[in-house]
Amino acid sequence: MAVLVVVDGMGDRPLEELGGQTPLEAADTPALDRLAKRGVTGVVDVVRPGVPPGSDTAHLALFGYDPYEDYTGRGAFEALGAGLDVEQGDVAFRGNFATVREGVVEDRRAGRHVPEGDDLAALLDGVTPEGFPEVEAKVRHTTQHRCAVVLKGAEFSRQVGDVDPHKQGERVKEAVPLDGSEAARFTADVVNAVEEEFHSILSGSELNEERESRGDLPANHLLLRGAGVVPEVPSVEERFGVEGKFVAPVALYRGVAVAAGMEPVPLGGDVVSMGDVEQVEAEAEAANEAAETDFLFVHVKGTDNASHDGRPEDKVEVVEAVDDLVTELWEVHDGPVAVTADHTSPCAEMSHSGDPVPLLIHGPGVRPDVVEEFGERSCASGGLNRIRGRDVVFELMNLEGRVPLHGE
Ligand code: ZN
Ligand code: ZN
Hints:
By secondary structure, the chain is of the alpha/beta class. 33% of the residues lie in helices and 18% in strands. The strands form two sheets. The chain has an eight-stranded mixed sheet, with helices on both faces. Strands 3, 4, 5, 6 and 7 form a five-stranded antiparallel sheet that branches. A hairpin with a 2-residue loop joins strand 3 and strand 4 (104-107). 53% of the residues are buried. The site of one zinc ion has 6 residues, from helix 11.
């Protein structure tokens, strides 16, 4: 089995409060250091040197695809990750339950607390908008105020603008086509009709009456954004002849993995609501159960959460939990493993940046380099030097003899 561990936003910059070290450098990581020492290391420009990657394009790249050519919008990944079926021709969106009064967005997240999200989504699931009898909307609640929506039944385009104004106090936008194609025009018309239908169903629902009588904001609108279609890419099986599985609690990453032809490993408990460290522990358990598969992708989210909130100490803790995960994995697994990040997320910036990320690859046949520790700066002296994100999986699969010969 080959394992790819992606620690979201793990890359960082030296921080004064950590004595001039990055969170990864400051963390106590005996297992990662041992793998770096016995393996080969390098740094990775996940999308392109100096370009801050989104998590979606970054993961496409780490699975070996072109983050520019093969990227077809975030919505489809969210929907696939939520367990919805997205086929060629369909268009998918991310959606927020929101509070809208007289066309103005009072709260983009309907107060964030939407415990009746599953039931509200069920009211919208299967809706056919007026004037488009061939179209059907599939709606699935994911977490808090969030949903995924897929439009089926026609040839849609992803070139359609957001309905979500991304700001409180502004009017709900009308969906507009983003290019001159007939499909984009049609998609925009359908989205507007669907939004109207959603609003009328949600406004009239008893669930919202109950919310208001409790003093909660009504979740009376579903604001769509991030239109996407499924990318037409070869699966990991087609490319490397491997059965791929993934351990990933968050919908977006699950979705990119599904688009790459991988299957989920069941996670025990309510992993989505767990604390960042606890979540990694639950993932470690699931990863160990999947030790029989050919290719396993493990995604860790907590490092990026801590980065966006500017919490370097918590980021250190999540990295140390990853070290434990790797240690445990080692008890059941001795094949190649790659550990890297999807982008740098400097805690001081609280967002993604374009700095390269560290990478280690360990396994039978690897040519060890001089690097003895896993860190942003140590890996810059590694034997892999500086590579592109889309090359990582090839480097890993090469150790398994899974990359087809190019030429004769
Ligand atoms: Zn990310
Ligand atoms: Zn992020």
